[in-house]
């Protein structure tokens, strides 16, 4: 079946998320939709899937105009979606998840689970998935959960499959497997829309590439285009994809972490006996699939984790057991992984957010009252220095775009005298232009002699920043390897396999 | 608690796990053991306790069991100590104590207490249990309604209001029409009305559900109390003297000793309750309807993306839950009490809510929890009839004390439906 979107326009208030976007997907074709976060890709797909109604334009299937009132209509028309955040119910089994919404039933609405199991097995076998229909979804690894999503779509005879940022949560190996699955689907005649902002993946599988920027189609690109060309199309100007950085000149040993174990309130151990060190003027990048203890590790570094054992020694002083405030006073800067939850107060102004980590003393507070004038001057300086695009310092942080929000966080954390910088997913959900800027700031901090711990689930980012790479898997250190370690090796390590000759 | 009940964060790898609250169970058991021991130490009782097992109409009579009170209590204390030590040993070695052990402990401790309380007198065991079942009926219906609502993602604090309004509607309608069946239907309608308000505020207007529930309870109390004092008491004969459902003995089954009189010499509402428990449990886990209800309560967005109408499903479930809770309300005025009285549920809806949580949002377990609370209530009334050495005011606290201990001490780590109490906002 041939799917066409014609002049789709979707507005949210005064914001035009999609501005006359047209694209077509032929059977047996992988059509990549490339664009930065916030470019309007997901909005477009939600329109296609019936979750949003378009203000203008139409959806055509084999030249027939469609009117989707909800996802049910879209599915009935043969459109399936593999969501970025899986639409699976964790406490249901695979079979239950697959059958939900189009259940086979017997007498009095009795669920026919056997039919669902059979369907799961059939589709699994067809594509070589190994999925147990009776497994609870929450017990499955993320990669397998994604296959359940695919099975779910295929069980409804989807002829066009939409993959929305499917690789964000996968290891490099799982990503390769997904690419293989996509090619296999393509062979069997399924049309595929592949939404991503990762250039490497696009070039690997795409038959056609449509680039979207700020809600409009800015052009088609050929899969043979170079990364730089694609990035320039996406951002609208030439982008330096890899930050220039001189070799590290490590100084004294600044941070020594030994036998660090972090458990949560329920007693689950997330970081298990981790030991490493960072020298002054060196970046240690922590690689790993999301959820392998990185969050807990960084939280322990600033005193946010509740149950910490072991030692974190910064410049000869012990951090474990100290309060967050003591950690800050020891000179730790912290860029948290989720700026909206931990990094910023959305309803505070940019200026107020910039002083959050200095809310109790000079220079902004004296004798219990705020020195607003000083804060205003400081905030204006930082706005200019960090290239935060905002109407003014009294703009609410919540109204900024992701990239600008992140720049505010980075500005705040880097504007103190630091003894250690902990940066967790510093460029997640940030546009390519801002990534470049933030990376430069982190490298500059390193060059000024600050030891830096960067956590990232993006190998590109690890490669751009790292002087050494530490890989975490299930809370343990798999190995600490040099920055020039190959992607394949890192991928295997991220799946828990120890490399030969590593010093872990 | 099985491993399945542990909160599993799919993003978080579990390297090793400590089960939290392992010492809670032995702690609660030790406290009860000490209590029973204190009874007999502080006030030892002379005489024998007689336990009566038979009733007229049984096929054959089981003889009464007569035992020296002090002997029974001390035996119970020793058994309790053994069970507590076993639970403590389990906790020490990092294991959970099997629920069967805890249940056996409870039976032994309660038997010890009863033997002490009825020393020198006779305890009609069958009457105690049959009465417990009857008292539990509104709790079971209320808990079933609560389970259904919360499984669909709507917290229902208004169970008490549904029970009370159901009782009111049943009393008035049955009095006017002269038919308890009409009263029953009116009770269901009244429960649905309260549910409709709950749904309107919770589902459509995204109001904080706990607040809505509490406000609805107060609203129903206010309305029924007003109607009671201004209308019903003026004309009690015509409006507040409902006909009752008669006791209905099931042929054959009712003759089985012990079991018959407890389960099969009850009113039609009790038989309706059996059916409701089985039906709800079956439908929730085995039917298409139940799958969708649970999906909507766990991950409404996921349900929406496969074409399930979340809002409609929630409304339907909440209204059905209201009808079920309404039947519970009918029990008050069509079975237990001659007429409607002000605030006559006495907060039973809150106990039903506790049963929902104690029962881990499962219809069968919630029913068992409601039966436990019914038993605690009936111990109080039976002991006050045969004369108990414990002051009656203290005994009146019993169901609530049991509730607190059960929910706080024994319920362990339970997981509510993930979207329980979270309104679904379509972006």
UniProtKB/TrEMBL annotation, chain A:
One function term, GO molecular function aspect: ATP hydrolysis activity
Keyword field: ATP-binding, Cell membrane, Membrane, Nucleotide-binding, Repeat, Translocase, Transport
InterPro entries with a match to the protein in the record: AAA+_ATPase, ABC_carbohydrate_import_ATPase, ABC_transporter-like_ATP-bd, ABC_transporter-like_CS, P-loop_NTPase
PROSITE patterns per UniProt: ABC_TRANSPORTER_1 (PS00211), ABC_TRANSPORTER_2 (PS50893)
Predominant localisation class: membrane
Residue span, ABC transporter domain: 3-239, 255-499
Entry's Gene Ontology cellular component terms: plasma membrane
Subcellular location: Cell membrane
PANTHER family the record matches: CARBOHYDRATE TRANSPORT ATP-BINDING PROTEIN MG119-RELATED, GUANOSINE IMPORT ATP-BINDING PROTEIN NUPO
Record-given protein name: ABC transporter ATP-binding protein
């Amino acid at each position: 079946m041939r799917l066409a979107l014609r002049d789709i326009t979707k507005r949210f208030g005064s914001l035009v998320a999609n501005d006359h976007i047209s694209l077509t997907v032929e059977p047996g074709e992988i059509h990549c939709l490339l664009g930065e976060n916030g470019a309007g890709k997901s909005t477009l797909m939600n329109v296609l899937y019936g979750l949003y109604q378009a203000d203008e334009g139409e959806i055509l299937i084999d030249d027939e105009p469609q009117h989707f009132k909800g996802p049910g209509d879209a599915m009935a028309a043969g459109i399936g979606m593999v969501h970025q955040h899986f639409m699976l119910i964790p406490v249901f089994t695979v079979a239950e998840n697959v059958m939900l919404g189009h259940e086979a039933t017997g007498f009095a609405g009795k669920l026919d689970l056997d039919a669902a199991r059979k369907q799961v097995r059939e589709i699994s076998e067809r594509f070589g998935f190994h999925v147990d229909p009776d497994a609870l979804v929450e017990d499955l690894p993320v990669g397998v959960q994604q296959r359940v999503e695919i099975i779910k779509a295929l069980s409804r005879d989807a002829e066009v499959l939409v993959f929305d940022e499917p690789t964000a949560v996968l290891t490099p190996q799982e990503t390769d497997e997904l690419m293989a699955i996509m090619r296999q689907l393509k062979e069997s005649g399924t049309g595929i829309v592949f939404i991503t902002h990762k250039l490497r993946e696009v070039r690997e599988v795409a038959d056609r590439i449509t680039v979207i920027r700020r809600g409009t189609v800015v052009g088609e690109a050929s899969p043979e285009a170079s990364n730089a060309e694609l990035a320039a199309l996406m951002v609208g100007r030439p982008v330096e994809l890899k930050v220039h950085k001189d070799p590290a000149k490590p100084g004294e040993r600044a941070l020594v972490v030994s036998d660090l174990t972090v458990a949560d309130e329920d007693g689950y151990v997330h970081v298990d006996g981790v030991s490493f060190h960072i020298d002054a003027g060196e970046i240690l990048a922590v690689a790993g699939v999301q959820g392998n203890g990185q969050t807990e590790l960084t939280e322990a570094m600033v005193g946010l984790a509740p149950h910490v054992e072991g030692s974190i020694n910064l410049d000869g002083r012990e951090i474990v057991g100290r309060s967050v405030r003591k950690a800050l006073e020891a000179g730790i800067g912290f860029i948290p992984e989720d700026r909206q939850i931990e990094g910023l107060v959305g309803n505070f102004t940019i200026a107020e957010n910039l002083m959050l980590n200095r809310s109790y003393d000079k220079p902004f507070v004296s004798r219990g009252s705020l020195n607003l004038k000083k804060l205003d001057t400081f905030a204006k300086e930082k706005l200019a220095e960090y290239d935060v695009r905002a109407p003014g310092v009294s703009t609410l942080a919540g109204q900024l775009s992701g990239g600008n929000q992140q720049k505010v966080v980075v500005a705040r954390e880097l504007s103190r005298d630091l003894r250690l910088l902990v940066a967790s997913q510093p460029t997640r959900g940030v546009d390519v232009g801002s990534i470049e800027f933030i990376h430069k700031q982190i490298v500059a901090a390193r060059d000024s002699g600050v030891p830096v711990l960067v956590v990232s689930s993006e190998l590109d980012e690890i490669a751009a920043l790292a002087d050494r790479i530490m890989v975490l898997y299930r809370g343990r250190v798999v190995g600490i390897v040099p920055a020039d370690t190959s992607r394949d090796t890192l991928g295997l390590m991220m799946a828990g396999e120890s490399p030969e000759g590593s010093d872990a | 608690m099985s491993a399945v009940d542990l909160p599993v964060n799919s993003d978080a790898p579990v390297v090793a796990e400590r089960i939290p609250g392992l010492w809670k169970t032995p702690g609660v058991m030790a406290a009860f053991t000490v209590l029973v021991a204190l009874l007999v130490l502080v006030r030892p009782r002379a005489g024998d306790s007689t336990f009566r097992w038979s009733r007229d109409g049984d096929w054959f009579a089981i003889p009464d069991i007569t035992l020296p009170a002090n002997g029974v209590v001390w035996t119970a204390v020793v058994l309790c100590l053994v069970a507590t030590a076993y639970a403590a040993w389990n906790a020490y070695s990092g294991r959970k104590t099997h629920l069967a052990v805890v249940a056996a402990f409870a039976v032994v401790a309660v038997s010890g207490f009863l033997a002490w309380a009825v020393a020198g007198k006779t305890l009609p065991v069958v009457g105690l249990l049959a009465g417990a079942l009857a008292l539990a009926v509104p709790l079971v219906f209320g808990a079933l309604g609560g389970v259904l609502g919360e499984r669909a993602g709507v917290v229902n604090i208004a169970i008490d209001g549904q029970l009370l309004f159901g009782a009111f509607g049943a009393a008035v309608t049955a009095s006017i029409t002269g038919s308890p069946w009409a009263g029953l239907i009116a009770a269901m309608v009244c429960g649905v009305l309260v549910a409709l308000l709950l749904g309107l505020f919770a589902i459509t207007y995204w109001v904080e559900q706990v607040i809505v529930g509490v406000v609805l309870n107060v609203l129903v109390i206010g309305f029924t109390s007003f109607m009671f004092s201004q209308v019903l008491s003026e004309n009690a004969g015509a409006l507040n003297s409902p006909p009752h459902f008669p006791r209905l003995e099931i042929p054959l089954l009712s003759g089985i000793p012990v079991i018959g009189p407890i389960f099969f010499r009850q009113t039609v509402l009790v038989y309706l309750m059996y059916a409701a428990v089985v039906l709800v449990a079956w439908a929730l886990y085995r039917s298409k309807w139940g799958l969708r209800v649970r999906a909507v309560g766990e991950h409404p967005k996921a349900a929406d993306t496969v074409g399930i109408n979340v809002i409609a499903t929630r409304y339907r479930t909440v209204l059905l839950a209201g009808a079920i809770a309404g039947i519970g309300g009918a029990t008050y005025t069509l079975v237990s009490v001659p007429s409607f009285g002000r605030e006559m549920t006495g907060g039973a809806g809150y106990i039903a809510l506790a049963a929902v949580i104690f029962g881990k949002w499962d219809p069968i377990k919630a029913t068992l929890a409601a039966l436990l609370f019914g038993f605690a209530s009936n111990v109080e009334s039976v002991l006050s009839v045969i004369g108990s050495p414990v002051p009656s005011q203290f005994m009146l606290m019993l169901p609530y004390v049991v509730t607190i201990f059960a929910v706080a001490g024994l319920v362990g780590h339970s997981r509510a439906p993930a979207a329980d109490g979270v309104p679904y906002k379509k972006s």
